Amino acid sequence: MSVQLEPSEILTFKRPLTRMSKETLIVRNPTKENIAFKVKTTAPKLYCVRPNAGIVAAGKSQEVQVMLQPFKEEPPLDQKCKDKFLVQTVPLVDDIKDLELAELWPHVETKARFLIQQIKLRCSYFSEEAEKEIDNVTLVDSVMAPEEIAHIEPTPRVDEVPKSSSMDEMAKMRSELDAYRNELESLRSRAPDAAFESHITKSNGISLPLVVIIALLSFLVSFILLKQVI
Fold it and tell me: Where is coiled-coil annotated (predicted)?
């Protein structure tokens, strides 16, 4: 079982970077032997690491503070950090365990290099504003987009049939009935009632009262049917 780091892959430094940003690295030793560790970086002038070397007892852990020095100007939000860290560990066995920490690493690097284990870490700049923008823009794929919903044409229900055609039909029937009534009144005024009714009866075989009743009934039935549709 090897040494464990937390975080295990990326050291994250919170913006703004014009002030010091700090990340805590935890070195865990799950083994049965004490271990020595050392932290290196590709940008030693930018970072302050405390402690940058030490000993972790078996089953224990050690916190390491990694501090990014303030920048003169805030870098762009899309700028990626290219800095890297390297954590080296070695078990304190045999004659190594009796060495002082200052002597240990020079000795190991020259005579027991095969005992060294290395873990690489990358660095990243973190921005809360950028995270909020991503959360607001991204949607779940299964949710239909508003523009897709706008293109869907709902199927009209029976009670949602357009009423304009029904109203037009009713107005047309009323107009025809009024015209028919006016024609009857005009004919009635030209001749006596008896002669007029006799003329209608002879020509159509139907008496005037019956014609009027049929017309009124037709209008009433049509009106009721159209009323139900509306």
Answer: 163-190
